[in-house]
Amino acid sequence: EQSKLHMRFFTGEATWRSLELAGHVGFDSLPDQLVSKAVSQGFCFNILCVGETGIGKSTLINTLFNTTFESDEASHYLQDVHLRPKTYDLQESNVNLKLTIVDTVGFGDQINKDESYKPIVDYIDTQFENFLQEEMKIKRSLHNYHDSRIHICLYFIAPTGHSLKSLDLVTMKKLDSKVNIIPVIAKADTISKSELHKFKIKIMSELVSNGVQIYQFPTEDEAVTEINSTMNAHLPFAVIGSVEQVKVGNKMVRARLYPWGSVQVENESHCDFVKLREMLLRVNIEDLREQTHARHYELYRRCKLEEMGFKDTDPDSQPFSLQQTYETKRKEFLVELQRKEEEMRQMFVNKVKETEAELKEKERELHERFEQLKRMHHDEKRNLEEKRRELEEEMNSFNRRKVAAETLMGQALQSCSQQPFKKDKDKKK
Amino acid sequence: MTSSLRYKSRIPIKTDESIEEKQYVGFATLPNQVHRKSVKKGFDFTLMVAGESGMGKSTLVNSLFLTDLYKDRKLLNAEERINQTVEIIKHTVDIEEKGVKLKLTIVDTPGFGDAVNNNQCWKPITDYIDQQFEQYFRDESGLNRKNIQDNRVHCCLYFIPPFGHGLRPVDVEFMRALHEKVNVVPLIAKADCLTPNEIKKLKDRIREEIEKFGIKVYQFPECDSDEDEEFKQMDKELKECTPFAVIGSNTVVEARGQRVRGRLYPWGIVEVENQSHCDFVKLRNMLIRSHMHDLKDVTCDVHYENYRAQCIQEMTSKLAQDNRMESPIPILPLSTPDAETEKLIKMKDEELKRMQEMLNKMQQQMHEKDQ
Question: What does pTM read for this prediction?
Answer without folding.
Answer: 0.71
